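Hi V.,

Quick status before I head out on leave. The structure for the redesign project is tokenized and pasted below; the design run finished overnight.
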């Protein structure tokens, strides 16, 4: 069967529907396009919706670059209750029926969660402890609390507030758990809170408005790899240098003169992305992040 699968390279932007797991979405894409290799660049919980970046074929090598990018969400925070999973799928463990939160207090509290900070990952998460996902340990009655991790919340915009419902737009770094953020905001307000709905609107340099749905899925919606990672500079090379790269020959400053050491560099030949390279500090040699053979 694998020999009949099509080799498709590129990136697909999908609007994940509610009730479908990230793995389930990948499976449906693979089946719909009869594609040989499909992966994703960042999961969404089954109850969440919105942008998922799907990588096909050689583009799966780009997933690590996508995972490191910032993301933006529209989150619905419900005040007055806290669940064990910090979201709508959990069991209520704390509640507060008698509370009154002004919009001023809400705004002031939200603003305290903007910036670089430490966040304790939820015990119901896909993070692993000794090879076992935390959510499995939690479900078996053996929850494991991981050490706090560094995150950065770039901004939180209050879009709507009609107690007990709060609608927030949140831009954050990788590794940020929005449900934990909502739970922490609820605790800071003194009335508890949990994440009722979540919709991702931006990820990996792409916007939800440019995505497609499973029902409209087709190969002509696939984005060429050269058109991704637009925050990276691009250098176009001739056939001689392209052959050196294909053969894994060490590249130096004599091959490509580049003084920006902060980010990797996209190498393009004949309008195709053939490699991503990087140079540390003031070294004269480049390291290969990944090479794409055509």
């Amino acid at each position: 069967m694998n020999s009949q699968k099509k080799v498709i390279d590129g990136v697909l932007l999908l609007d994940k529907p509610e009730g479908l797991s990230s793995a389930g979405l990948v499976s449906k894409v693979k089946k719909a396009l009869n594609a040989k290799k499909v992966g994703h660049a960042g999961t969404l919980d089954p109850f969440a919706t919105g942008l998922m970046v799907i990588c096909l074929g050689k583009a799966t090598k780009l997933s690590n670059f996508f995972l490191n990018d910032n993301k933006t969400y529209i989150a619905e925070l419900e005040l007055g209750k806290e669940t064990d999973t910090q979201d709508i799928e959990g069991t209520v463990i704390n509640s507060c029926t008698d509370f009154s939160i002004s919009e001023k207090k809400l705004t002031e509290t939200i603003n305290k969660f903007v910036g670089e900070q430490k966040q304790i990952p939820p015990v119901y998460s896909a993070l692993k402890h000794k090879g076992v996902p935390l959510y499995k340990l939690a479900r078996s009655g053996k929850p494991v609390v991981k050490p706090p991790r560094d995150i950065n919340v770039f901004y939180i915009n209050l879009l709507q507030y009609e107690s007990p419902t709060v609608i927030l737009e949140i831009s954050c770094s990788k590794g940020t758990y929005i449900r934990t953020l909502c739970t922490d905001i609820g605790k800071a307000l003194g009335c508890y809170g949990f994440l009722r709905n979540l919709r991702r609107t931006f990820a990996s340099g792409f916007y939800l408005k440019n995505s497609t749905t499973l029902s409209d899925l087709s190969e002509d919606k696939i984005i060429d790899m050269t058109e991704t990672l637009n925050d990276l500079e691009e250098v176009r090379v001739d056939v001689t240098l392209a052959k050196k790269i294909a053969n894994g020959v060490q590249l130096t400053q004599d091959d490509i003169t580049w003084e920006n050491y902060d980010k990797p560099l996209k190498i393009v030949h004949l309008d195709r992305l053939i490699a991503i390279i990087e140079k540390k500090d003031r070294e004269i040699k480049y390291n290969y992040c990944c090479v794409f053979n055509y």
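Above is the designed sequence. The first helix runs from residue 22 to 33.

G. will cover questions while I'm gone.

Best,
W.
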